[in-house]
Design goal:
Elements lengths: L1 H4 L8 H14 L3 H16 L5 H13 L4 H44 L3 H29 L5 H6 L1 H17 L4 H15 L26 H17 L4 H15 L5 H13 L7 H40 L3 H29 L3 H16 L5 H17 L1
């Protein structure tokens, strides 16, 4: 079935795609909202490797399957033209750079007993990240639903209703609701393109290696880490924000692996490193059981989303051109983007804590709007320096 999906003469090679995701995993700051925005900008708008339709299909499937949104979308994009090997290589290339970074930060944390300097860095970086993901959310909204014009909004009013509902529900519950996404997709499908199979049966689509704690682990702890993070990867849907409450309940409350301060540091590490926010599981795993713990935690978290994506992608791609399925995807996608905007609001309320952070966020947005050639990593670097200077003074 996977062979049927492979298109002749794709506009890019597997090596090109792997290099892109290695670069995105190394320099892609901003969390899931920004990362999916980068993929759209780079692969759809600039390079033309994917069509708008293929991107939307991948985004919808990524939201339906459990696990980190950006990693799922990357895995799906790898699958589109290069099947299982493409999905595997893009997934590894995307996750590996940030995994190495959080392990190195975990080693530094064990050596120096804390990340006081990181809190100062995060003070500036967190505010800049809000500006970056706010811009990404804006662009994604205009591309996915409609332009911010009265006529366009009127013609797509139902999708805008789903979008606003996604924002409100996410802000109130502080999590993405899979049932809401499914309901929006089904409702839009029934209104716009009721499927024929409603009336007849159909088949459903199926350097410091000796640092403190590097090899400090035991078998029982690794098993507990494996099972816990496997559940986190299999039952938590949506962006990196959604997994944080689940991790807190297990890591701090249930197992007592970390205290509150250490857990906050782990979230800070995720926010100031590139790649998927969920990679914080590697940092947590390292603190609990050294390098083996980091590997087990990361593998257990990302394995479910990889399996779900490659299992569902063939059937999803095959039926995606159906008018009813297109309507279903449009309905889901509108609420998904709304939920991502809701996540931006939640993160913003926690990161914009005073006038300096508000100014950093505003300047970031203005820079992205008016300084066309500026790259996100440069903004992150400048924000980190500003944070250190403010805290030092």
């Amino acid at each position: 079935m996977a062979e049927q999906l492979i298109k002749p003469k794709p506009a890019y090679s597997l090596l090109d795609l792997t290099k892109y995701y290695l670069k995105l995993g190394t320099w892609g700051f901003g969390g899931p909202v920004a990362l999916v925005g980068y993929m759209h900008r780079d692969l759809v708008e600039n390079k033309g490797w994917l069509t708008e339709e293929e991107y939307k299909e991948g985004l919808a499937l990524a939201q339906l399957a459990p696990g980190p949104l950006a990693a799922q979308l990357g895995i799906y994009i790898g699958f589109v033209h290069y099947g299982l090997i493409g999905a595997t290589l893009t997934g590894l290339a995307f996750v590996l750079p940030s995994f190495i970074m959080v392990v190195l930060l975990g080693m530094a944390y064990q050596l120096y007993g804390g990340l006081a300097w990181m809190q100062a860095v995060f003070y500036g970086v967190g505010a800049a990240v809000i500006g970056i993901i706010a811009m990404s959310a804006y662009k994604l909204t205009a591309k996915t639903i409609s332009k911010f014009e009265p006529a366009a909004i009127k013609s797509k009013w139902l999708l805008w209703l789903f979008y606003i509902t996604g924002i409100v529900i996410t802000v109130i519950t502080e999590r993405e609701e899979i049932l809401l996404f499914l309901a929006c997709g089904i409702l839009y499908m029934l209104i716009k393109a009721p499927p024929k199979w409603l009336k007849r049966p159909a088949i459903a689509p199926a350097g410091i290696l000796l640092s403190i704690g590097f090899w400090n682990y035991n078998g029982k702890t690794l098993q507990e880490i494996g099972w816990f993070f496997l559940k986190a990867g299999a039952f938590v849907f949506g962006s990196g924000l959604a997994i944080v409450p689940f991790l807190h309940g297990g890591v701090v409350k249930e197992f007592g692996w970390l205290n509150e301060h250490q857990f906050v540091d782990a979230v800070a590490v995720a926010m100031i490193t590139p790649g998927p926010v969920v990679i914080t599981v590697g940092f947590i795993g390292y603190l609990v059981a050294g390098f083996p713990g980091a590997c087990v935690a990361a593998l257990a978290t990302f394995l479910p989303c990889y399996l779900f994506t490659v299992a569902l992608a063939p059937s999803f791609k095959k039926i995606a051109k159906n008018a009813s399925i297109k309507a279903f995807v449009e309905g889901i996608t509108s609420s998904v983007i709304g939920a991502l905007v809701g996540s931006v609001i939640i993160i913003g309320l926690r990161s914009i804590i005073d006038l300096p952070t508000a100014l950093i966020a505003i300047v970031t947005v203005l820079a992205l709007l008016y300084v066309k050639k500026i790259q996100e990593p440069y903004i992150i670097g400048m924000a980190a320096i500003i944070g250190l200077l403010i805290k030092a003074l």
